[in-house]
């Protein structure tokens, strides 16, 4: 446990040599690569093979596996960790994720309601449409 | 006075920041912030596609248009280019100039293959009458995938420029810094592509 405290104070030294993010190793890249192949193959197989009967379940699985693969890329290829740049990259990432979540969920929510609450069109209005 | 005395004996009051300072060289952090802002551009385009992606205007749907085999090959190209860029970075760490250049070159070939396949797909879609003007779905599709393709194009220009730089000036600190930035950019584009193939292609074909 004590090594954790030491590493926190060491971060400054690790970063002052001009290299911001960590570099990773051959092993790290290969782990990320193999995981990515598996996580890419599964959703393609699910959709192209029509493996599952439920479309909704397939869609949820595809998006879920996509999120997992994004995390794998972040960790093994982009070398994200809570300590890089004194934690500021992680802060920026979390902030961005919140904004992305608001933008995505908000757009879909608002537009869905606009669609369903649209004033019903009469035959007359339909005729006079541009 | 005595209160201060008591405090001093209990524990030292500290009136300065004890955390570490910001790193002196913050290029990587700055570039990361740029990538996050780029991420917002893509988020808005994804949201647009989420809203408009089902409005076919009585035109073709994703199941009619998309060839998932082609998309799978495309995905493989981008994933392979990501791992070969990683190998280039490992060679850079070893100070091996020639090997770095070779791996960067292989990355460029995979990147070019990705762009070629994407242009082939776009060309065929437009030839079939499924261009960006056909329906709201196709407008948002071409905007989102086209923006990603444009990023890869600029990444390729950057990659070739850096290969010339490394060949001319070697792996000096400036070129190392630039290679690190391009590494983040390239892997970031692969992350965006995960969203594209999952959300646009696979969910689109699923219907």
From TrEMBL, chain B:
It comes from the Bacteria. The chain crosses the membrane at residues 29-48, 68-88, 100-120, 140-164, 185-206. Residues 29-205 form the Heme-copper oxidase subunit III family profile domain. Keywords: Cell membrane, Electron transport, Membrane, Oxidoreductase, Transmembrane, Transmembrane helix, Transport. InterPro entries: Cyt_c/ubiquinol_Oxase_su3, Cyt_c_oxidase-like_su3, Cyt_c_oxidase_su3-like_sf, Cyt_c_oxidase_su3_a-hlx, Cyt_c_ubiqinol_oxidase_su3, Ubiquinol_oxase_su3_dom. One of its GO terms (cellular component) is plasma membrane. It is found in: Cell membrane. It is a multi-pass membrane protein. It holds the Pfam family COX3. Heterooctamer of two A chains, two B chains, two C chains and two D chains. Cytochrome bo(3) ubiquinol terminal oxidase is the component of the aerobic respiratory chain of E.coli that predominates when cells are grown at high aeration. Has proton pump activity across the membrane in addition to electron transfer, pumping 2 protons/electron. This is Cytochrome bo(3) ubiquinol oxidase subunit 3. It comes from Shinella kummerowiae.
